[in-house]
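Sequence design from tokenized structure. All designs in this work follow the same two-part layout: the structure record, then the generated sequence. An example of the structure record is given first.
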């Protein structure tokens, strides 16, 4: 069982409401779910869609073919009719679209009139549509009823009843009208699953990692992190500050970190450009900070609400001068959750900035999981506090040590002064100009720490044949689509994937000799959502390995399953 549903229409028509509700129904019914969205940067109008794929087996990417199209406007039919699979249907309201379609695949459902009759107003038409889809699938409404009750419990019994009546009306209409509906919905024997997207996973991971201060300026796709943490701030004692710009945001977070708490900021490429000075301040003062960097197509404002993987080089190399930084590029919300924890731990352990690099696709995509293993979370307080700090005979913030890691004291928690400066400084943190101290400080901050950081970086994840003839390689949000491609092609091909989620410092081959795997393969392909193959270039620079074959997509949209399979087959 594997079905895809697309809800299309203009911004403001309730596309998200229908999509979110159906997704919750499927996940609570125990099915595996994957969703992705496509929307324009406007509040009203344009064309948007929400696509849901659900199955009785794990799914990690969207397919091109769809089984049910909920068309809330004419453009949805014009743009997506060609995507229909065999035995698929389009549901629409002819009174709203002011057009009737005679094709037997079209089902004319009076969303608006039923909403008025059974729900008391047009606003209930989205609930009618939701009930209609469930009726076409042959699913019961008990889970939807519970969702409605949870969603509208603060609005009273009348609103709850109106929504339930509207859903029932749509459901019954579909059951009677769609006699040709033959969807084979396998009853799930599994329990309700966790439903989470990338943004929520970053927010949840930061809270679980002890973040106590978050500052940011709103910018898609990172804004949701601030909203999520702010919604939990009172419960977990977290201060969330919307700064006047990204310069203020990173400096506020650095100030909070210097003062003794775990701090974070988030932005996109345009905002990260403004944060570069603060990033270098973190490097010079050795103040730990976590930065969530959401990629979207540029240059400049580009496609504000689309996706791309074009800021890897920006994240790796942008700075004033040389200092270590850590970059994670998770591929699933589960990886996001764990790597956010690791980012906080390593940033504080090595007193460096750590960047969580994601993109619009991962930010919005919803996945289902059975559970998260909380034992995999890491929390170590590396700061000097209380008696441990007060009992020291002397303290130097930037003390030379064999590891390059100096004691990180909390200001005001001891009689010792905690001093640092953005200029080059001595062990105590005071400005200096001499060459000898400069050499020692660069060795301390960079050359001593970097090998230690690299030891904590995990190698890429291998999935598929242990000795593959074909190796697909990618990073970040390409995880799901590559994994599904390997599953689909493994029946008659020796194929595997290498997925890099910890990308800088580049992982060594001590734990896993992935270079040997690539060298012994007959065909290697690097798959990226950018035009120039940024990861392939980074890998060549760091290891000397060069990919002869690349698949690059840079139209602002993610790879779809059939599309990637076709391009891989063209390389074989």
């Amino acid at each position: 069982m594997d079905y895809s549903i697309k809800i299309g229409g203009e911004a403001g028509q309730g596309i998200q409401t229908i999509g979110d509700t159906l997704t919750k129904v499927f996940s609570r019914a125990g099915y595996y779910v994957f969703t992705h969205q496509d929307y324009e940067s406007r509040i009203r109008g344009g064309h948007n869609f929400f696509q849901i794929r659900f199955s009785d087996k794990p799914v990690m990417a969207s397919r091109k073919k769809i089984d049910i199209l909920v068309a809330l406007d004419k453009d949805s039919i014009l743009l997506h009719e060609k995507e229909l699979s065999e035995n698929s249907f389009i549901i629409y309201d002819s009174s709203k679209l002011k057009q009737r379609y005679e094709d037997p695949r079209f089902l004319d459902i009076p969303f608006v009139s039923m909403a008025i009759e059974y729900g008391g107003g047009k606003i209930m038409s989205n609930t009618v549509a939701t009930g209609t889809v469930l009726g076409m699938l042959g699913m019961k409404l008990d889970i939807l009823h519970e969702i409605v009750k949870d969603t509208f419990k603060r609005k009273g019994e009348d609103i709850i009843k109106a929504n339930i009546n509207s859903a029932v009306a749509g459901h019954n209409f579909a059951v009677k009208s769609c006699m040709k509906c033959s969807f084979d919905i396998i009853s799930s024997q599994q329990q309700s699953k966790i439903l989470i997207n990338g943004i929520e996973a970053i927010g949840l991971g930061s809270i679980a990692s002890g973040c106590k201060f978050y500052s940011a300026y709103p910018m898609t796709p990172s804004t949701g992190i601030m909203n999520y943490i702010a919604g939990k701030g009172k419960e977990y004692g977290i201060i969330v500050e919307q700064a006047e710009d990204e310069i203020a945001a990173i400096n506020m977070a650095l100030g909070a970190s210097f003062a003794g708490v775990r701090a974070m900021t988030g932005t996109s490429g345009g905002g990260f450009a403004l944060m570069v000075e603060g990033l270098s301040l973190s490097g010079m003062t050795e103040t730990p900070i976590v930065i969530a960097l959401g990629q979207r197509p540029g240059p400049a404002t580009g496609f504000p609400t689309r996706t791309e993987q074009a800021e890897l080089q920006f994240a790796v190399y942008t700075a004033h001068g040389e200092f270590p930084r850590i970059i994670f590029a998770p591929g699933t919300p589960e990886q996001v959750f764990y790597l956010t924890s690791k980012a906080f731990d390593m940033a504080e352990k090595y007193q460096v900035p750590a960047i969580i690099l994601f993109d619009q696709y991962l930010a919005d995509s919803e996945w289902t999981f059975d559970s998260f293993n909380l034992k995999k979370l890491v929390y170590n307080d590396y700061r000097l506090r209380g008696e441990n700090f007060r009992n020291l005979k002397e303290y130097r913030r930037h003390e030379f040590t064999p590891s390059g890691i100096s004691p990180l004291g909390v200001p005001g928690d001891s009689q010792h002064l905690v001093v640092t400066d953005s200029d080059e400084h001595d062990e105590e943190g005071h400005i200096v100009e001499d060459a000898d101290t400069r050499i020692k400080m660069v060795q301390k901050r960079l050359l001593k720490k970097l090998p230690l950081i690299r030891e904590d970086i995990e190698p890429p994840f291998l999935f598929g044949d242990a000795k593959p003839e074909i190796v697909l390689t990618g990073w970040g949000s390409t995880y799901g689509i590559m994994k599904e491609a390997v599953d689909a092609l493994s029946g008659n091909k020796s194929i595997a994937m290498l997925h890099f989620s910890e990308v800088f410092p580049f992982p060594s081959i001590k734990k896993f000799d992935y270079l040997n795997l690539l060298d012994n393969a007959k065909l290697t392909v690097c798959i990226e959502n950018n035009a120039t193959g940024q990861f392939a270039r980074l890998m060549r620079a760091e290891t000397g390995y060069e990919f002869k074959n690349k698949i690059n997509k840079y139209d602002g949209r993610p790879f779809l399953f059939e599309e990637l399979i076709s391009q891989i087959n063209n390389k074989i």
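The chain has a mean pLDDT of 95. We note this feature because it recurs in several other targets discussed in the main text.
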